[in-house]
Amino acid sequence: xxxxxxxxxxxxxxxxxxxxxxxxxxxxxxxxxxxxxxxxxxxxxxxxxxxxxxxxxxxxxxxxxxxxxxxxxxxxxxxxxxxxxxxxxxxxxxxxxxxxxxxxxxxxxxxxxxxxxxxxxxxxxxxxxxxxxxxxxxxxxxxxxxxxxxxxxxxxxxxxxxxxxxxxxxxxxxxxxxxxxxxxxxxxxxxxxxxxxxxxxxxxxxxxxxxxxxxxxxxxxxxxxxxxxxxxxxxxxxxxxxxxxxxxxxxxxxxxxxxxxxxxxxxxxxxxxxxxxxxxxxxxxxxxxxxxxxxxxxxxxxxxxxxxxxxxxxxxxxxxxxxxxxxxxxxxxxxxxxxxxxxxxxxxxxxxxxxxxxxxxxxxxxxxxxxxxxxxxxxxxxxxxxxxxxxxxxxxxxxxxxxxxxxxxxxxxxxxxxxxxxxxxxxxxxxxxxxxxxxxxxxxxxxxxxxxxxxxxxxxxxxxxxxxxxxxxxxxxxxxxxxxxxxxxxxxxxxxxxxxxxxxxxxxxxxxxxx
Length: 515
Hints:
alpha+beta, Outer membrane efflux proteins (OEP), four-stranded antiparallel beta sheet, two-stranded parallel sheet
């Protein structure tokens, strides 16, 4: 005769079995692409270490400090108070930031909804009913009236035997992380757009000033040419050519002023104000300082510091949890419920022991045949993960492309500015000699006109090259992630699972501050 196990032993075994089932997870290990090596450079060819020294304003060399920390407020490396104030206003008032913050709160609330399944659900019910029943069943005519009062408290609970609840929560938790990184990416994009637009405004302002100075010079030269024509020293064709040159230079002013207006309007929109309400001092290149030392993160750190990469990784974690959910659908679902209350025909009898009612229900549901739906759902989850996996790889490659291009741009910008400044010096010297020779009657007007055109082009090209150096420096700092990991503000709380839950999201660095 087979003996049954003693109750204490059976209870222990049941506990162990339940714990084992709860510990198992249908979520597969997170599949990640191979991380790049820190020994490999970002760019093809030799690694960029130091630029040339162009000389003049914003003409010092820039050094790449690999492995160094980037300042949290990276735009302060330009040491422009007006720029700092504009970015502060943008971060406070931008509707793009407000939208990202609202989406984060929405995701956090959804995660709290998911976490509620870990706890019993308690529902109270109170019902009063007045009815008339027929007396025909008792061989009597008419009927009788009665009242029925029923009150109960019900409790339902879904034990997480196969970890389905935990997978649902991890999916929502990953989406919270995704929205946190999307918020950080929105901040980085906003600050980057403000900086580059401010530099573009400063460049347009500089070109306008240079063009107006050129126009003033052309007017003086036209006056000189007309005087020489009156004196009979030159023919009238030279006067017509100089008038044409003056008109050509004046025609370049309206497009430049239009560009300046567009940049100023764009800055107003970026900080959350209407263009007509913008009140501030204009930016000039002279108000900016070019950073001499540029902190450049190592390749492995870039994966942790770029908000878009972290957002793509969070999407992978959410998709990975969805695979576990699809797998768990093949296994039973258990529901426990209980109810306790009272029902009586008179309020005075409601709290009497004879009026008490109660029920205990345990339900188990096991899919048997659903026409291939569960297999299809599992295949769908795997395909969704493959899609976000490919998107993650694309995001990483795009990030490294941006950093590599920015590094080369910083290097080549210095070389371009050095060449442009040399060209400007040569053009200025040639124009001085041509003007002196023209006044002395030793050279014709065509020689002078050629020197003018060369000088004008060289002057505008120098301003463009100088502003491009600022633009690409800002682009490099943005491509590296913007320095958010050096924040010291307290972390934003998110929905939390019970203490024994295992989070599917990697912990953030110690200095990380979630938006």
